[in-house]
């Protein structure tokens, strides 16, 4: 017996989970969750739960794999055997190998690889719980993990999917929409709007494809704001405190020096006045002594 719903969108334009066609699922982000990784991120997107970790840059072995002019970025996507309802076979599969390849290529335009020639940066994305859109969720988590590791990048990469159900385009498909929909189009792009990953499963007309890309662009912009907020919440307070300290230090330093200079000037003035008084007293005493001798 099939679990396919009769309708994915009701008369009021609401989907099965209560979202509009152009809304993304709620997203929760936590960075720095792994102490032994150079950078890490835990991301929940709808019912998806993804953990990303970055190790490197570090020396690459065997040496024959080293690139003399740039760093090698290795991206590994994996779904845990318990991440889906029907337990899957643990270990790499053809699907995970394919997703690892195309997802790793999505970061090529932004990662500044020329700074670490001969080294390697390993990116691991582990899906702990799957609910449609795991490859895009993993890319979003991996982007923040790279930023948390301090890897130089030209910008962030955001990923989202658009699909077609009931003959209508919808943003960020959930599990029933992904399983029984007519099309699925996952896309990753830079913050400048450059597409770095595009795959399609199903059929879309050229007009639908153009409209879908506009929808997914808006979805990636929403995700980009969430990514920026996550970075600001982790690093923004430290930067603000540093700026405040820099602003306060120039004002506070000169004040005690001026006071010390004034005190020194006053002490010099007092010493000069005392010296003058002593000279005057000496002169008067000598005059009085001469007058006494004359008398």
What does this entry look like structurally?
Helices cover 41% and strands 24% of the residues. The protein is α+β, with helices and mostly antiparallel strands. The chain has two domains: 27-244, Ribosomal Protein S5, domain 2 (2-Layer Sandwich); 253-294. Strands 1-2-3-5-4 form a five-stranded mixed sheet. Strand 4, helix 1 (94-105) and strand 5 (119-129) form a beta-alpha-beta unit. The chain is globular and about 60 Å long. It comes from Methanohalophilus euhalobius. Component of the archaeal exosome complex. Forms a hexameric ring-like arrangement composed of 3 Rrp41-Rrp42 heterodimers. The hexameric ring associates with a trimer of Rrp4 and/or Csl4 subunits.
Record the SSE blueprint.
Elements: E1 27-31, E2 39-45, E3 48-59, E4 72-79, H1 94-105, E5 119-129, H2 134-148, E6 157-165, E7 168-171, H3 175-180, E8 183-190, E9 195-198, E10 201-202, H4 206-252, H5 254-294
Parallel strand pairs: 4-5
Antiparallel strand pairs: 1-2, 2-3, 3-5, 6-7, 6-8, 8-9, 8-10
Helix pairs in contact: 2-4
């Amino acid at each position: 017996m099939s679990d396919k719903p009769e309708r994915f969108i009701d008369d009021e334009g609401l989907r099965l989970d209560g979202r509009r066609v152009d809304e993304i699922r709620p997203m929760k982000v936590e960075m720095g969750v792994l102490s032994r990784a150079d950078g890490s991120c835990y991301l929940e997107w709808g019912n998806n739960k993804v953990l990303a970790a970055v190790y490197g840059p570090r020396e690459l072995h065997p040496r024959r794999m080293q690139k003399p002019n740039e760093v090698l970025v290795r991206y590994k996507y994996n779904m845990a055997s318990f991440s889906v309802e029907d337990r899957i076979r643990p270990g790499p599969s053809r699907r995970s190998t394919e997703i690892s390849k195309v997802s790793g290529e999505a970061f090529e335009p932004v990662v500044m690889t020329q700074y670490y020639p001969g080294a390697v940066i390993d990116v691991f994305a582990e899906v702990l719980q799957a609910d449609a859109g795991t490859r895009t969720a993993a890319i979003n988590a991996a982007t923040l993990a790279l930023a948390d590791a301090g890897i130089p990048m030209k910008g962030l990469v955001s990923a989202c999917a658009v699909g077609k159900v009931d003959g209508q385009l919808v943003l960020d498909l959930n599990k029933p929409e992904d399983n029984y929909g007519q099309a699925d189009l996952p896309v990753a792009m830079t913050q400048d709007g450059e597409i770095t990953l595009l795959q399609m499963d199903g059929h879309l007309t050229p007009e639908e494809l153009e409209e879908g890309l506009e929808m997914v662009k808006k979805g990636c912009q929403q995700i980009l704001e969430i990514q920026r907020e996550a970075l600001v919440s982790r690093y923004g307070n430290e930067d603000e405190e540093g700026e405040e300290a820099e602003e306060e230090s120039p004002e506070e330093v000169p004040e005690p020096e001026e006071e010390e200079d004034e005190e020194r000037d006053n002490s010099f003035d007092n010493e000069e006045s005392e010296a003058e008084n002593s000279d005057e007293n000496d002169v008067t005493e000598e005059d009085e002594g001469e007058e006494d001798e004359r008398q």
